[in-house]
Write a structure and sequence with these properties.
About 30% of the residues lie in helices and about 25% in strands. Helix 4 crosses helix 6 (about 235-255) and helix 4 (about 125-150) crosses helix 13. It is elongated and about 85 Å long. By secondary structure, it is of the alpha+beta class. The protein has an 8-stranded mixed sheet, with helices on both faces. The chain has a 5-stranded mixed β-barrel with strand order 2-3-4-6-5. A 3-stranded antiparallel sheet has the order 8-10-9, with no helix packed on it. The protein has helices spanning about 55-65, 115-120, 120-125, 125-150, 190-200, 235-255, 255-265, 270, 285-290, 305-315, 370-375, 385-390, 405-415; strands at about 5, 15-30, 35-40, 45-50, 70-80, 85-100, 155, 160, 175, 180-185, 200-210, 220-230, 280, 320-325, 335, 340-345, 345-350, 355-365, 400-405. It binds 4-amino-1,4-dioxobutan-2-aminium adenosine-5'-monophosphate (4AD) and magnesium ion (MG).
């Protein structure tokens, strides 16, 4: 029996007979020759089948073989300049594990996105979608590697929670034995507790927002990594963010250049410039910039929308930090800027090329008094936050952190039009299936 090898590794077996196990992606017949395009999740390879080189049964089985049939193919690895991965298989045997039904819904033609999303369980088999999912796995790993090697302890925060973090309008309520509970919008408040035990922490998991907006960057279930640091300021947040984001981009460029360029048609030159330091501008400066760029009517005090973020980020080659937003457009927990309570110690990181905000963070309110006042101003039920107020009663410290949205970061790195392609099974306003 020939050795079973992943398609991605056939290059190491040139001249040898190997077996690949996968699915038929495409087939063309030319008389006594058949070309089988086989994919196995690690790559694509063409098997060249000559009638005289294979058993009669194998030739017949290949005759009407349908797309997505599961097959085991044995053959000799031959280098071929013209082949997609540089190698082909001279097929010596073929076993059909399961003959796929004739009507595989996804054909090599243009389908509408509604149709593709309805068949997401099959769509993910396409090489482009598989490439994105591979890159997603690398991005997650690179984030954890960076944080783990810089002293951050990974602490899991709850998904069922008693209170809002990012405003009450996007809460998903669930029935918790007769009492209301909410799916977490962010693990931040719990991180703010665990830093008192561990110094620097992060959580990384799914978060939920009942976003009623249908945009290309909103999901109702998305993944967020949230680092939090004791004895830290807004400036520390910016430094950690630019280091971590640059590391992630570097690792993806190292490991996925082919996926990016060949499968996703990503122009990587913009990504290659992503190195610290990132430019930093204040909200005030950003507003002045908008006024100069045709948004004369943008009122100071409002949060930026997608077109504003695009206009701001266009001015910079790299991701840009915007800091000190108006207090009124940020969450209740933000620290005030001393002497200027109308602005807060917040920061967003805007990705280039129109991708907008990928990180939100800041320095947290230090004092019990400020937090109590803010809970009231935001009409939040104090009982649900008593535990959080304890953190300001027993050894409060300046502390800061941020959340990076995984899907938006991947959409930017991969150069995608919409975050829905960055997660295997997206959840959006009008999509819960499959
Ligand atoms: O700016 P946000 O709301 O910040 C927080 O949740 C803070 N509690 C994080 C922290 O400081 N620990 O969200 C952070 C990031 C955004 O910058 C964005 O990348 C992503 O999460 N995000 C979404 N991604 C996809 N779909 C949505 N509906 C998102 N909402 C936020
Ligand atoms: Mg935000």
């Amino acid at each position: 029996m020939a050795e079973w090898v992943p398609i991605a590794e056939v290059a190491q077996h040139e001249g040898e007979e190997v077996t690949v196990k996968g699915w038929l992606y495409h087939r063309t017949d030319k008389g006594k020759l058949k070309f089988l395009m086989i994919r196995d999740g690690t790559g694509l390879i063409q098997g060249v089948m000559f009638k005289k080189n294979v058993p009669e049964a194998a030739w017949e089985a290949a005759d009407h073989l349908t797309q997505e049939s599961s097959i085991i193919v044995t053959g000799r690895v031959r280098a071929d300049q013209r082949a997609p991965g540089g190698y082909e298989l001279d097929v010596s045997d073929l076993e059909v594990v399961h003959r796929a039904e004739l009507d595989y819904p996804i054909q090599p033609k243009e389908h509408g996105v509604g149709f593709l999303l309805q068949h997401r369980h099959l769509w993910i088999r396409s090489p482009r979608q598989a490439a994105i999912l591979r890159i997603r796995a690398t991005v997650k790993r690179a984030i954890c590697d960076w944080l783990d090697s810089h002293g951050f302890v990974n602490v899991d925060t709850p998904i069922l929670t008693p209170a809002a973090v990012e405003g009450t309008t996007t809460l998903f309520e669930v029935d918790y034995f007769g009492e209301p509970a909410y799916l977490t919008q962010s693990g931040q408040l719990y991180n703010e507790a665990t830093i008192f035990a561990l110094g620097k922490v992060y959580c990384f998991g799914p978060t939920f927002r009942a976003e009623k907006s249908k945009t290309r960057r909103h999901l109702t279930e998305f993944w967020m990594v949230e680092p939090e640091m004791a004895y830290a300021t807004l400036e520390d947040v910016m430094e950690v963010t630019e280091q971590m984001v640059s590391h992630v981009v570097r690792v993806v460029l190292e490991r996925h250049r082919h996926d990016l360029e060949a499968r996703l048609k990503r122009n990587v030159s913009r990504l290659e410039r992503v190195e610290p330091p990132f430019p930093r501008i204040s909200y005030d400066e950003a507003v002045a910039l908008l006024h100069r760029k045709g948004f004369e009517d943008f009122p100071w005090g409002e949060d930026f929308g997608a077109p504003h973020e695009t206009a701001i980020s266009e001015e910079f080659e790299k991701p840009v930090f915007v800091y000190h937003y108006p207090t009124q457009c940020k969450a209740f927990y933000m620290e005030e800027v001393p002497g200027r309570p109308e602005v807060c110690r917040s920061v967003d990181l805007l990705a280039p090329e129109g991708y907008g905000e990928i990180v939100g963070g800041g320095q947290r309110a230090f004092s019990l008094e400020l937090l109590e006042r803010r809970l009231e101003e935001h009409n939040l039920p104090r009982e649900a936050y008593e535990w959080y107020l304890d953190l300001r009663r027993y050894g409060s410290v300046p502390h800061a952190g941020f959340g990076l949205g995984l899907e938006r970061t991947i959409a930017w790195i991969c150069g995608l039009d919409h975050v829905r392609e960055t997660i295997a099974f997206p959840r959006m306003l009008e999509r819960m299936y499959p």
